[in-house]
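Q: How would the structure tokens look for this protein?
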Amino acid sequence: MQQFMASVTWQRGEQPFLDQRYSRAHQWAFDGGLQVPASSSPLSVPLPMSDPAALDPEEALVAALSSCHMLFFLSIAAQRGFVVDSYVDRAVGTMQKDGGGKKSMTGIVLRPAIVFGGERVPDAAARAAMHNSAHAQCYIANSIKAHVSIEEA
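A: Here is the predicted structure in token form.
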């Protein structure tokens, strides 16, 4: 068993609370010392109660899935003898009501633009197979119910 830890800290300070107009800005801290300013999305909680410059949980979910997929893709490409020079994903998550009427992340589209180097460059079928394998192995994809699709740029 492996465990992963994160610390989330919010403090009210002097601001009112019961009127629901308190700041949603808070801090995420991770085991390596990284601290990330976080907040609710301005799409969920209007300004000034949210901080548009901070990372919100919805963006973090999309980034976590994209990162997980990329890391598996890179490993698979290396195992199959393909050299990846760059990988840029402009992933997009869609939040809406699901079939049960609950607001949820219903879909995430990964849009990787991958540049291969070296003498061997995979064709479309080989790239699709690597994406399928990466998706099947991605811990984050295996943990969510949102539909995930991949559209190579």
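The beta strands are 6-9, 26-30, 35-38, 83-89, 92-97, 103-110, 112-117, 147-150.

Residues 57-79 form the longest helix (23 residues).

Upvote if useful.
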